Write the structure tokens for this entry.
Amino acid sequence: TPGQAVARMAVVLGVGLLLKNLAEYLSSQFNTGMQEGLVASLRRKLYDHLLQLDLGFFHRTRTGLLVTALINETDQAKGIVTASMVTLIRNLFLLATTLVILASISVRLTLLSLIVVPPLAIGLRLLTRRIRRHSRARADERGELAALATERLAGIRLVRTSDAAPEEEAL
């Protein structure tokens, strides 16, 4: 009867909603643990690496760059990895579902549509490399800005006590 069909549909929708919310909760729990572990591991490895470097490196490299790398870069990596993992899992599930539905409609048409995958993958790979290059350049610029701000702020007492503020403003 129509009433029973509506009741079954309501139950199916309710169960689907519960499963979706459970999956989102488990995903957020997994992601939080993964994010914090990743950041702690990256910072620890970076700090350990810094301890192994020779003293000349620290004379050549601005402190602000190191601070930026230690704090900001690891947080950015956390965001990127998390977003990538969520997107990857979601897209794999969507791809599998789409392929099953397409194959149930027409296997030949499904195979024909998969022919475009290799050229798309190559194009995406080239685009990703280009974006990564630009992203690194922006990160270097942020590091230089942080280094400049750190050095200026660290030396502000000296500038004030030596009455060199006009010269510093000219820079």
About this structure: The longest helix spans residues 2-52. The CA atoms of residues 68 and 108 lie 53 Å apart.
